[in-house]
């Protein structure tokens, strides 16, 4: 215990003040206020900051506590500070200027936190003091209650609320309220808090987060009600003495009958001479009522030098209000010893001790009764009743909150409300704090009831597998009266939703039609050529028509993937016929699968894999092959149900034990198929096909390439990659969300994966290589050319054979003629000349072949001829430049 400090002047300049204002340590630490040390010490004792991810500091200016929170809380924590006066910026901290007693303040915090809950709520508020002490203390208590109101709204279950209270008449009432809402409540005075100050810090841990909190618990009118009533009725007569005892024997116990200071006695700080304590017949009372024992007279000062007056005793005498049970015992022992040394009545002590213990028992035994009495006196229901009522209400509230949530999401979908409002409404409801400043209850009641009825009507399952809720819902017969109205309303809402969905689909169709890509696809589809591989999922028919509830997010992701693939396919058209064929086959595998499900449940005979071929090419299988072939001719009996065989044996029997003929599954070997066919994935499992597809075409985006490069270069581990996959975009519930919303989310609500320059370069290079390949038409033209050349050569050879068979010709003549024929056959076919006739002069207006023109011709006008010539010139010069 430190020395007592004066409240004014240099007395203020205690160790912590100096630390805060002058010392090197503070400058190093840069705290704005000495109060920072209080929080540091509180945190040292209770360690609530280190594990917190979200903290709200109410009455935070100038920001000392915020600085401490920012320092001790983990990086990336959310820290919000509010005060009447503005707070200079602090890194990692968001601050507002607001009065914590107003709804605006609550809304500001709500906006900032969204759906987050705070792990810690701090309150170090002090109202503008300077009026009468009682008023100051009362406003402080009110402020504490207001901060508690915010705390219960924003705190997470198990969270911590730290508040500053003044030791006043309201103290015990506040402590009682804290006790109702938190598992552990401890009042403490950190060493850096001046002893002369009446402030004490209450650390409330393990927030119970009741579903429903009776507004009375947070209403100053109710919480501090006993002030006048108890004083007036005189019911607490003698309670001072009781409290004094309790102060000593149960310093940390809630005292419900404490009436604070006597009427007219507003002295906050009581000093008792040590002599009074030593000589008093009621030492417990002295210890319980006084703040400090002082050694003023010469005799008392002399006691200070005695060996029994240890530094502990001296420190204990300095501030009685912060002592524990053991400290009081030390003081009482010291008193007894001193009384012995002084020759005062020694017999009184054991009696006193006995009385004390009797009192303790009595106090403990009466605890329950006191509680009961207090409840009665305050006009509150008993604790048991409160609990029962609260749990019943909590159930109702939970159900209503769920309904409201559903309703609000619907409203949001219809753009009738902003997402932000959801949390607010839910909180209003769950806290039921609508009676005074946060009054929304009336407005929401009707809506909740409607929601509830609709659920009942639709026989919807009440979430959170709460059977009680269901029973309760069923029991609420009164609500059935509203049934028709609600049904009607719900029907209208559904109709409106359906209409909106229809309009949205139409809009999507229009968009697609406008899209050139879509046009190209459509044309191809109509022409039946170069049909794009529609993707594995295409077997469901038109994707856009698919029900979002049947696949929802996956449908969108698959669609997105397909869009990306198809667009890249389009760009590198042409020569990728082979690849396309593969994909078409993959697609057909899945579509076949669907068809088969209707017509034939058996799997198709599978081609052996390369591994299987190698395996079965071993000598020991030669006989088996022959045996099977001999037996039936066919390699596989048509009636063998391949689908019933294990996958491993189906894929070629690789895992079958050699020598066990019975276990062997002989797969058909389609000799007509080339290697390319053998290596194709034909597992029939869409998942395998998807994987194979991704393996082949997966690295088509810069993001994918970046990740792949990071994996290869060991900048990223697979575990981290998987972990990163679980982000806020990946775990969104999409049930019941409309198509337009999912469409929009698929476009915009996706993780922003950083891409590297190298990845973009790689992709571009790949694209360039694809672009460099000839397009299909050119390949076809070249093929035709080759075919013509081959035909010419064939023709020449046939002619040469005839020449060779001619007996009239000499060998020399034959050789010359054959050489000429072959030369002709190998040379390009001569282009047939097309005559260009300018339609002017005599040719103008001529219809049909002009006179004197033989062979191919084309009629042109003068202008066209010029243009054609100019074009040729241009092409020529362009060719030269290249
Ligand atoms: C002791 S200071 C807080 C010091 C702070 N914990 C720190 O470490 O810097 C008390 C603060 O409470 C603020 N305050 C008092 N009443 C308030 C109210 N109704 N709303 C918001 N802040 C209030 C005052 O403006 C004052 O800045």
UniProtKB/TrEMBL annotation:
Residues 232-265, 458-487, 515-591, 630-672, 845-882 are annotated as: Disordered. It is found in: Nucleus, Nucleolus. This is Uncharacterized protein. One of its GO terms (cellular component) is preribosome, large subunit precursor. Belongs to the class I-like SAM-binding methyltransferase superfamily. RNA methyltransferase RlmE family. SPB1 subfamily. GO terms for biological process: maturation of 5.8S rRNA from tricistronic rRNA transcript (SSU-rRNA, 5.8S rRNA, LSU-rRNA); maturation of LSU-rRNA from tricistronic rRNA transcript (SSU-rRNA, 5.8S rRNA, LSU-rRNA). Residues 251-411 form the DUF3381 domain. Pfam families: DUF3381, FtsJ, Spb1_C. Residues 660-876 form the Ribosomal RNA methyltransferase SPB1-like C-terminal domain. Gene3D superfamilies: Vaccinia Virus protein VP39 (3.40.50.150). InterPro entries: RNA_methyltr_RlmE (IPR050082), RNA_MeTrfase_FtsJ_dom (IPR002877), rRNA-MeTfrase_E (IPR015507), rRNA_MeTfrase_SPB1-like_C (IPR012920), rRNA_MeTfrase_Spb1_DUF3381 (IPR024576), SAM-dependent_MTases_sf (IPR029063), SPB1-like (IPR028589). Keywords: Methyltransferase, Nucleus, Ribosome biogenesis, rRNA processing, S-adenosyl-L-methionine, Transferase. Residues 31-207 form the Ribosomal RNA methyltransferase FtsJ domain. It comes from the Eukaryota. Residues 517-527, 871-882 have a biased composition (Basic residues). Residues 642-651 have a biased composition (Polar residues). Its main location: nucleus. The active site is at 164 (proton acceptor). Residues 574-584 have a biased composition (Basic and acidic residues).
């Amino acid at each position: 215990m430190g020395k007592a400090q004066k409240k004014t002047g240099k007395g203020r300049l205690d160790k912590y003040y100096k630390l805060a204002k002058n010392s090197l340590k503070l400058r190093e630490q840069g705290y704005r206020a000495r109060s920072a040390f209080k929080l540091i010490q509180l945190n040292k004792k209770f360690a609530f900051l280190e594990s917190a991810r979200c903290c709200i500091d109410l009455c935070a200016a100038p920001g000392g506590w915020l600085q401490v929170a920012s320092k001790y809380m983990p990086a990336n924590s959310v820290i919000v500070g509010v005060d009447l006066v503005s707070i200079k910026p602090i890194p990692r901290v968001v601050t507002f200027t607001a009065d914590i007693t107003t709804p605006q303040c609550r809304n500001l915090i709500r906006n900032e936190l969204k759906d987050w809950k705070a792990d810690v709520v701090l309150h170090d508020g002090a109202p503008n003091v300077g009026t009468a002490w009682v008023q100051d203390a009362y406003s402080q208590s009110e402020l504490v209650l207001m901060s508690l109101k915010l705390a219960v709204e924003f705190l997470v279950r198990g969270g911590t609320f730290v508040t500053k209270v003044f030791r006043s008449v309201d103290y015990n009432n506040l402590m009682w309220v804290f006790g109702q809402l938190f598992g552990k409540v401890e009042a403490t005075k950190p060493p850096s808090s001046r002893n002369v100050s009446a402030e004490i810090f209450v650390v409330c841990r393990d927030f119970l987060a009741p579903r429903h909190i009776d507004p009375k618990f947070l209403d100053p009118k109710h919480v501090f009600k006993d002030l006048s009533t108890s004083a007036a009725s005189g019911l607490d007569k003698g309670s001072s003495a009781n409290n004094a005892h309790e102060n000593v024997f149960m310093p940390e116990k809630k005292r419900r009958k404490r009436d604070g200071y006597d009427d007219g006695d507003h002295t906050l700080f009581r000093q008792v001479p040590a002599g009074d304590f030593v000589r008093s017949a009621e030492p417990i009372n002295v210890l319980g009522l006084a703040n400090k024992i002082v050694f003023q007279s010469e005799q008392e000062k002399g006691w200070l030098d005695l060996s029994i007056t240890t530094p502990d005793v001296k420190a204990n005498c300095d501030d009685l209000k912060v002592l524990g049970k053991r400290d009081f015992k030390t003081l009482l022992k010291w008193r007894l010893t001193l009384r012995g040394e002084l020759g005062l009545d020694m017999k009184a002590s054991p009696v006193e001790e006995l009385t004390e213990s009797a009192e303790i028992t009595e106090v403990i035994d009466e605890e329950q009764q006191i509680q009961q009495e207090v409840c009665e006196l305050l006009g509150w229901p008993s604790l048991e009743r409160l609990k029962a009522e609260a749990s019943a209400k909590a159930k109702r509230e939970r159900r209503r909150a769920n309904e409201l949530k559903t309703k609000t999401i619907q409203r949001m979908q219809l753009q009738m409300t902003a997402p932000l409002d959801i949390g607010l409404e839910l909180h209003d409801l769950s806290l039921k704090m609508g009676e005074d400043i946060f009054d929304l209850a009336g407005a929401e009641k009707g809506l909740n009831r409607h929601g509830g009825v609709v659920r009942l009507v639709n026989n919807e399952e009440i979430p959170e597998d709460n059977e009680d809720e269901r029973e309760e819902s069923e029991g609420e017969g009164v609500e059935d009266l509203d049934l028709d109205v609600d049904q009607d309303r719900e029907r209208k809402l559904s109709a409106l939703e359906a209409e909106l969905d229809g309009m949205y689909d139409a809009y999507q169709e229009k968009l697609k039609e406008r899209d050139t890509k879509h046009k190209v696809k459509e044309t191809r589809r109509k022409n039946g050529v170069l049909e794009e591989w529609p993707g594995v999922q295409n077997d469901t028919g038109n994707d856009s028509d698919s029900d979002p509830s049947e696949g929802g997010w996956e449908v969108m992701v698959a669609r997105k993937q397909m869009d990306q693939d198809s667009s890249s396919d389009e760009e590198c058209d042409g020569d990728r016929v082979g690849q396309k064929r593969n994909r078409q086959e993959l697609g057909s595998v899945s579509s076949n699968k669907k068809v088969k499900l209707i017509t034939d449940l058996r799997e198709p005979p599978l081609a052996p894999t390369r591994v299987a071929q190698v395996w079965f090419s071993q000598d020991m299988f030669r006989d088996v092959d022959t045996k099977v072939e001999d037996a039936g001719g066919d390699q596989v009996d048509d009636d063998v149900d391949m689908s019933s065989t294990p996958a491993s044996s189906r894929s070629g029997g690789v895992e079958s034990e050699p020598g066990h003929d019975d276990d062997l599954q002989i797969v058909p070997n389609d000799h007509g198929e080339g290697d390319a066919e053998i290596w194709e994935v034909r597992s029939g499992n869409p998942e395998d096909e998807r994987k194979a597809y991704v393996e082949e075409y997966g690295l088509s985006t810069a993001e994918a390439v970046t990740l792949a490069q990071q994996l290869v270069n060991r900048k990223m581990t697979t575990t981290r990659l998987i972990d990163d996959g679980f982000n806020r975009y990946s775990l969104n519930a999409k049930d019941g969300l409309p198509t337009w919303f999912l469409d929009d989310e698929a476009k915009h609500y996706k993780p922003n994966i950083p891409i590297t320059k190298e990845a973009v370069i790689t992709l571009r290079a790949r694209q360039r290589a694809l672009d460099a390949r000839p397009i299909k038409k050119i390949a076809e033209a070249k093929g035709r050319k080759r075919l013509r050349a081959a035909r010419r050569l064939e023709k020449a050879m046939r002619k040469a054979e005839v020449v060779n068979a001619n007996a009239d010709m000499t060998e020399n003549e034959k050789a010359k003629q054959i050489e000429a024929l072959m030369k002709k056959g190998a040379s390009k076919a001569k282009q047939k000349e097309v005559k260009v006739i300018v339609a002017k002069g005599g040719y103008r207006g001529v219809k049909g072949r002009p006179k004197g023109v033989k062979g191919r011709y084309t009629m042109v006008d003068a202008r066209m001829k010029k243009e054609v010539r100019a074009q040729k010139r241009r092409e020529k010069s362009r060719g030269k430049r290249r």
